[in-house]
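User: Could you check the structure of this?
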Amino acid sequence: MSTTKTLGIVHTSFALVELLQNTVRAQLPGVAVVNVVDDTLLAYARANGVDERLRRRMRRMFEACADAGADVILNACSSVGETVDSARDAVSVPIVKIDEEMADRAVRVGRRIGVFATVPSTLGPTRRLLEARAAAAGGSVDCTEILCEGGFDLLLQGKTAEHDRLVTDVVCRRAAEFDVLVFAQASMSRLAPMIAPLVKPPLLVSPELAMQRLRGLLA
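Assistant: Sure, the predicted structure tokens are below.
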């Protein structure tokens, strides 16, 4: 990978900055990273959904990445992923949703999809993305939204062990209902190596799969 390539990452909280930085370092060696963070955006999205004000704010974040020299931009937050759809026409470089590749894989694996999240605002956008990607492939899916209620607040409070137990318990209890499981948030992805051996359906997470899509765009 050429050292001249730059990946811009737009964050709506600081929770994923280090995780994604390390993932890029491991999966996309030689790629420089520009992080643009506004940690008020997720709270806004949780309270208001994706409205025109949020679209404007996110577009400015994407433009900041482009102005900083990004060759490709990664939107790291699934809750605001739908802002990418309108921003793509306004921003001069490609924008990738962190969960796009995960969604494409999931709809190929099975029809019954369990969508797990700890932030309620992530469930709807992820379900709609899965349904759209299935339709684009000529099929359909049956998505069930499952909230690990209170999990993200535990994470923000530094109660990592409690967060991990909560998510693990919910996923293991519901897994048998589905053909494939997806974690709607990248913040849950570090639990996949622990939970995947405990459940029968495949469990998909977004960061590593997103890197595969980015690798093709940056090549």
